[in-house]
Write a structure and sequence with these properties.
The protein is an alpha+beta fold. It is built from 3 helices and 10 strands. It is flat, with a radius of gyration of 26 Å.
């Protein structure tokens, strides 16, 4: 009797297992998007600040896995050849009341997403500039002979410049890094 019961349980288990596998197709194909690997260049990172605020630091980051990015006072990696689909995210820490409050001025993080980089000449690049504009706007320019915003006395980019992106307060980083300091490090 125990053998018959055991055999019945085994048959039921096999039926359940096989029924679960009938929906699978062994020759079905799936599409996986793999980011195209691009050759990168790198150069120094600088900023122009046309705002009345103090910009303490900033970062530029490309799509995940692209290795594009940098910022602050060091180097930035960017594609050797300009691509029209290239978009980056720019984050910056601004202290807006420094003149009135001095060192006690609160800092706030801002973020602009999907910032398109102005076209540049392959093989004739010289670093990356973040151009900060009033109204929490930003433009990223790779230095090259055609970069008119980097010319001496060029002034800020026009309000209609298609490569200027609108930023907004970055709630995620303002929560994690109030006043530019990782939460819990300052008392």
């Amino acid at each position: 009797m125990d053998v018959k019961r055991w055999a019945g349980v085994m048959v039921a288990a096999w039926v359940v297992l096989l029924a679960g596998c009938t929906g699978l197709q062994t020759n079905a194909s799936t599409t996986v998007e793999v980011p195209r690997r691009v050759e990168l260049s790198s150069g120094g990172t600088k900023a122009f600040n046309y705002t009345p605020w103090y910009i303490h630091t900033f970062s530029i980051s490309g799509p995940k896995g692209s290795r594009i990015g940098g910022g602050g006072k060091c180097c930035t990696r960017y594609p050797r050849e300009w691509r029209p689909d290239l978009r980056v995210t720019v984050r910056w820490l601004a202290f807006k009341d420094v003149k009135r409050l001095g060192a006690k001025a609160p800092g706030s993080w801002y973020k602009a997403e999907n910032v398109q980089i102005e076209p540049y000449v392959t093989g004739q690049t010289a670093g990356v500039w973040a151009i900060f504009l009033p109204g929490d706007r930003v433009k990223i320019v790779v230095g090259n002979p055609n970069a008119r915003d980097l010319a001496r006395d060029a002034g800020p980019p026009a309000a209609t410049d298609p490569y200027v992106a609108q930023g907004a307060p970055d709630e995620e980083w303002n929560d994690a890094y109030p006043n530019g300091v990782k939460r819990g490090l300052m008392k």
